[in-house]
């Protein structure tokens, strides 16, 4: 696992990637139908269930804990050190449940959750690590309730004249886990192949080098 996900790298992650995280997670949050979730929470006895896949240091879970205080929040990540940072950020909130899970095309079908059990699933800044993204997305879709939302966000593969091949080669030297980044159109196609119905999309500029996209979808 790359060094900035473990040890001192994990401990300093929020400082090192502050602007990147703030802008990508803000775009993610703006795509979530929060009104629908709040209305749903107010009209049923059982709490909302929200899953943040590749939750990292818990920044998005922290937002959900504030905006949807009665929701049951679940987070999974491959790095125990990143999960430790989540524990520090979220404290001893009894509604937060964190699990160490390495998500791949092989492991996606054995996630430790019941089918059709989540009202919202977020999956941010991690699709580029997936060896079989359609299988992963299909497994996440199976965890959604009938009206559940999947919000997917990642940095985008840039097209000509940006020298993406050289840039991605450099990314792989720094981050060997990187598999492939996708344009918005390519990501939409992956979602459709996984059986997801796309509701909204948006693109964003993160900084001079990085661009990104967000997709909101239903199963």
UniProtKB/TrEMBL annotation:
Pfam families: Methyltransf_12 (PF08242). CDD domains: AdoMet_MTases. This is Methyltransferase type 12 domain-containing protein. InterPro entries: Methyltransf_12, SAM-dependent_MTases_sf. Transmembrane segments: none annotated. Residues 51-150 form the Methyltransferase type domain.
